[in-house]
Amino acid sequence: MSMGRYAGSADPRAPEPVEVVKDWNGVAHAVLRSPRGATARVSLHGGQVVSWKNDRGEELLFTSSKAILKPPKAMRGGIPICFPQFGNTGTLERHGFARNKIWALDDEPPQLNHSDNGSKAFVDLILRPSDEDLRCWPHCFEFRLRVSLSKDGDLSLVSRVRNVNCKPFSFSFAYHTYLSVSDISEVRIEGLETLDYLDNLSQRERHTEQGDAITFESEVDRVYVSSPNVIAVLDHEKKRTFVIRKEGLPDTVVWNPWEKKSKTIADFGDEEYKQTLCVDAAAAERSITLKPGEEWRGKLELSAVPSTNCSDHLDQPGIM
Ligand SMILES: O=P(O)(O)OC[C@H]1O[C@H](O)[C@H](O)[C@@H](O)[C@@H]1O
């Protein structure tokens, strides 16, 4: 089984950096721990990160209090993997089938790169299509996912999709990242200003973002096309900034249901819309095409840092 260890941990009493446990449904979860106490939990149901906590034990991802945590229902929260379809743009169920499947621990993942191993706790998962998947989406693929937690508690997800078919196929994709925020009306997103977006609330009409930053006063469901690789989400009340870095994913989807829509979402508690913000690193607008034998990589890196001046984060180079 491919699970990473922190190099040179001197304390033999230190908790294991990677442990596999079962949840109450009997579904395996990999628990990643950093030496300073940050944790991440990855469920084999959906290959979904269901929890990410900082070294003070504060949960950084939102999960609905009414989320249905039983396969084959998708869990509303954490970081669902939307594949091979994002949203309702194709013939498959919304956001594709990957988030509803039981993934396997990957025993022999092909090497990723050296820098990704030594200093991180990580786990490798794999999804291959079942006969049922092939009936609704007739393309043979291997989807490998590595989830890593750095010593500083940063979370990263690397997806590798390989075409093991004899003909090309196309797919759309998103890391559907449910961030936990204190109050959505106190939150702003920087890094998407002046960009074009497609508004899912008005027949995907194209608009250009006008403000200095994105703020929230009503429902928002937008695809920012060709967005930069570094975006910051500032939570004034929590004095916390999420820095989102992406690679291989051209778009950013921003979603908050606001009060009215959230009442129509069955597994969504009252007022929970205030604590939810999805900022998805995605290939939503333009799909990715793979020829036989080709592989695509898409990476998401998340850091949660005390709020200072957000431009400090945006000035950092991308992760390419
Ligand atoms: O409720 P979920 O399946 O998690 O999807 C929630 C939302 O995800 C995306 O952001 C889409 O753009 C929205 O249209 C959708 O409502």
TrEMBL record:
Coiled coil: none annotated. InterPro entries: Aldose_1/G6P_1-epimerase, G6P_1-epimerase, Gal_mutarotase_sf_dom, GH-type_carb-bd. Pfam families: Aldose_epim. The keyword Isomerase applies. GO terms for molecular function: carbohydrate binding; glucose-6-phosphate 1-epimerase activity. Keywords: Isomerase. GO terms for biological process: carbohydrate metabolic process. It catalyses: alpha-D-glucose 6-phosphate = beta-D-glucose 6-phosphate. GO terms for cellular component: cytoplasm. Its EC number is 5.1.3.15. The keyword Repeat does not apply. Belongs to the glucose-6-phosphate 1-epimerase family. This is glucose-6-phosphate 1-epimerase. It comes from Brachypodium distachyon.
